[in-house]
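Schema walk-through. Below, the input block comes first and the output block second. Nothing else is stored per chain. Lengths vary across the set, and this one has 334 residues.
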Amino acid sequence: MRFLLTLILLAAIGWSGYWFVGATGSKAAFEGWIEARRAEGWVADYAALDVQGFPNRFDATFTDLSLADPDTGLAWTAPFFQVLALSYQPNSVIAVWPKEQVLATPQGKYQLSSDDMRASLTLQPNTQLALERSTLTAGNVVVAATNPPETAKVGALTLAAERSEGSDATYRLGLAADNVTPSAPWLKTVDPQGRLPETLQTLKADLTVTFDKPWDRAAIEVARPQPRKIDLKLAQARWGQLDLQLAGAVDVDDGGQPRGQITVKARNWREMLDLAVASGALPEGLRPTLEDAFGLMAGLSGNPNTLDIPLDFRSGRMFLGPVPIGPAPVLVIR
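--- output ---
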């Protein structure tokens, strides 16, 4: 019995020592990362950093955290931010955001509020900490712009990513957003007659993206990985009686220009044309030509209210069927 008690005591002392060394190392690593960002010209400040969770966790909590990258113009402030990890599996972590935070970009400043925004991440157990898989969830997300004042809302949000087997920089991504309420000015611009509900019932996407490098520490410290191939299995938006589905694949060059084809399936497509003209995305003079061409295509498919048509990206422009509709988007992550 005495031997057993001695063994238990030694194990407890050994584990306590392991936790103390691990917690000290974890805190030093976070402090070193902040100092390295400051040396690169970032704004990187916090009021306090505590590591707790004995005996089985390393729970790091930043208080009054502020980060700003001068190269991209992105800045983020939060009253607290937590990184929670099991002491025996430190490469599996949970990140926890506060109910209120502020994000500033070159396009504007945004107040973000949400219920229980958190993400689980599994990282490769090495110094680069490359992402293996991650899931972020949040409820009652509100994004409020300050200039001009606009507010958008999402009832429930889920974002997921998982590295594809056999590739360091290919990830399957998923998005599910329910009860999406765009800002009132945007709704007024897109739907000036108020024929559609204020809230989109569903917005979801399932796609695989190959980037030019993995999402790891360098993605934050140096530069964001850029998409080079996008394979869209399905993206869907349902807004009242409108139902839009997209699927296809594009390659993306070094300048962010896509090249490829996405198949567009649109139910009640004439109403979508009305919205595109009202929002300014489609010149009003082009509408009759598109309506005649799309009406013929929809009629050939057997359902005049449903359109199945290719959206082509080439030479920096977009073509819906044979009709050019404008410049292609530039797919660059800041």
